[in-house]
Amino acid sequence: VRNTRPGPGIPGLMAVLWRVAFSLLAAFAFVIVPGAAFYDEVEGDDTVQRKGRHVFCSLGFTVFISAAIIGISYPFLGDVALPVQKYT
């Protein structure tokens, strides 16, 4: 693949672009989408006095649980060895 070989331009640009893309994906998956869902739940609810506080508390709980699941499972599932057979 052409973008894996060094050439003219900024070295490591594709690695930076991939890191940015995955960071944005994680931000949308764990912060923006749940935050919008929590806001939508309390938008028309008059029994919730502090809507912003409710959204941030729910979002903080969601981010904490997600980080805990990822942090606990990574040492066990972070290294994979797949058996590969070579065909001749």
Question: Helix and strand layout, with pairings?
Answer:
Elements: H1 13-42, H2 51-77
H and E string: HH
Q: Which shape, going by the Cα principal axes?
A: elongated
State the major sheet: none
Helix content class: 55-70%
Query: Helix tally?
Result: 2
The beta-strand count equals 0
Structural class: mainly alpha
Nearest-integer average pLDDT: 86
What does the radius of gyration come to? 21 Å
User: End-to-end distance, in Å?
Assistant: 24 Å
Give unreliable regions as ranges. Answer: none
Task: Please indicate the percent range of residues in DSSP E strands (runs of 2 or more).
Answer: under 5%
Structure, described:
There is one protein chain. By secondary structure, this protein is mainly alpha-helical. It is 65% helix and 0% strand. The chain has helices at 13-42, 51-77. The longest helix has 30 residues, at 13-42. The radius of gyration is 21 Å and the shape is elongated. 1% of the residues are buried. The mean pLDDT is 86.
Summarize the structure.
The chain has 88 residues and is mainly α. The chain has 2 helices and no strands.
Keywords:
88 residues, 2 helices
